[in-house]
Design brief:
Length: 381
């Protein structure tokens, strides 16, 4: 499966720290970041990457230096970390229904003169945002209305009365209606490039139609923001959109390979683990569910197993087929790796794995490894 992989990416096998640890290939990371920025620029849309993928100030600043207009976060506490780290434009793409949840983020934004934009999908969210804005004296706070374009998670129907009702509520509370926002997470279940393109086109049609209805009701033209790596990488960026918010594109993983939106040699992140035991069936490594996660892919998608592994001494690929908390079971099919040797594991879902570690090793072309903190991991509120 990984025969396209650059052999240089799996050498040398150095012990930068106790295993398991995350290693990110600096050249692949940079190439991934540049490709997405170039695609956004060619389509005339802003790129606002979702940093829940990497949770790293270093990578976020690389994205901003390439031209990203700001970042997207999942939790208010993530936003606090990035604002303190120098980011000055943050979108919180998560529904907040309690004012107290927002107050630390808004206070930090005010302290550092950073711009924060929020989302809402119901009246409770509008009330909470309005209350938090009053406490922090931020009357011009921008708020997107979240549109459900097929995932069935958070958002209102683009074709119903809810967008107009919420836009009116924002106006009545003195908040700024920033636009319409969506996440086509169901694209992770797409079975072909044609289906990905169809999903991306359908998402854009829904947003454009909702914006037109709002304009007919008297609201000024508003921004349209979409976010999902499968549609951003695997389909054309539709005309009429203003912003894209992919996240996983920075690192990529086996889910992206299965979807056909990237090649094996685009995967920039791996987990390096050590073989601690070998039996008749398995090589056992020191990376289990607390390192690789038990995620089969975003929104539960994915294939069989929990990763593909490469050994430092053997030109073969292996499959991680079972996990316990601290152990991974790698089927060796009679070709047994040495105890003590290292395995490089390509996981299903890079975002979930990054959330398991406090730091990663950034490896450059000269095989120099730099330890980099994952500052925003462990932020849950």
């Amino acid at each position: 499966m990984l025969n396209e992989m650059d052999p240089g990416f799996i050498r040398p096998w150095r012990d930068d720290r106790r295993t398991p640890f995350i290693e990110i290939d600096a050249w692949r990371l940079e190439r991934n970041l540049q490709r997405m920025q170039q695609k956004a620029a060619a389509a005339g849309v802003a790129l606002r990457p979702h940093v829940k993928t990497h949770k790293s100030l270093d990578i976020a600043h690389r994205q901003l230096a390439l031209g990203a207009v700001g970042i997207t976060v999942s939790k208010p506490s993530e936003g606090v970390v990035f604002i303190r780290g120098g980011v000055r434009d943050v979108l919180l793409a998560y529904p907040v229904i309690r004012a107290a949840t927002l107050e630390p983020l808004l206070a930090e934004a005010k302290r550092h003169q950073a711009r924060v934009t929020l989302i809402t999908a119901d009246a409770a969210g509008v009330e909470a945002i309005a209350q938090a804005a009053r406490v922090q004296n931020m009357p011009d706070l921008g708020v997107y209305i979240k549109i459900d374009v097929g995932l069935g998670r958070v958002g209102v129907s683009a074709t119903g009365a809810a967008p107009l009702r919420l836009a009116t509520a924002l106006q009545q509370h003195g908040l700024r209606f920033a636009g319409l926002l969506s996440h086509a997470g169901h694209a992770y279940s797409a079975g072909s490039a044609i289906e990905l393109a169809q999903l991306a086109a359908a998402e854009a049609r829904l947003l454009l139609a909702a914006r037109q209805r709002l304009a007919q009701a008297g609201f000024p033209a508003c921004a349209l923001s979409t976010g999902a790596t499968p549609t951003a990488l695997g389909a054309p960026i539709a005309a009429g959109l203003d912003e894209i918010r992919p996240g996983n594109y920075a690192l990529l993983d086996l889910t992206g390979v299965r979807l056909g939106i990237c090649r094996p040699d685009d995967m920039a992140m791996t987990v390096v683990a050590r073989v601690v035991a070998v039996n008749d069936d398995y090589a056992i490594v020191d990376a289990g569910s607390k390192a690789l996660s038990s995620d089969l892919g975003p929104h539960g998608t994915g294939g069989s197993g929990w990763g593909i592994a490469v050994n430092q001494h053997l030109p073969l690929t292996y499959q991680v087929i079972k996990l316990s908390e601290e152990h991974g079971f790698i089927l060796h099919n009679g070709v047994k790796p040495e105890i003590g040797s290292l395995m490089r594991i390509f996981p299903n879902h890079a975002c979930a794995v990054m959330a398991m570690f406090d730091e990663y090793v950034l490896r450059d072309d000269a095989y120099n490894g730099k330890r980099v903190a994952i500052e925003a991991r462990g932020q849950f509120t």
